[in-house]
Amino acid sequence: MRETVDLLAQVVAAMSQRLGQQDEKLVHLRQIMAETLKATLSTRDQTDPKLCGRFIGNEVNLALDPVLDHFADAIASLRKNLDETATRLQLSALERLRDELSRADSWRRQRGWVWAGAMAAGAVLGGAVRLLGGA
User: Nearest CA to 44 among 32, 34, 36, 54?
Assistant: First the structure.
């Protein structure tokens, strides 16, 4: 019976050793599965259209922001120049209008003297014609 117990002890020890080896293999398989799951989730996140879209959008924004800022500055400069040009043209038009009004006012003042001179010249010529015609 002792031999049977020794034999059973050896069988139990061998089974225990095999179970230990299988347990190590199961632990190793769990680690591999955890790494595979992590890699799968990472791949899923990397191929997510929303995340890719956000990433591409951010990269495009980073690339285009300086260009768009430059365009905005150019637009602001053009608007400023347009406003300055419009103001200068208005001032120029006002100056021309003032000059025309000044000349018209000057002509209006001189017009009375021109009419008086024309009347005097007509009277002198009329008198000269009468003197020459009556002589």
Answer: 36
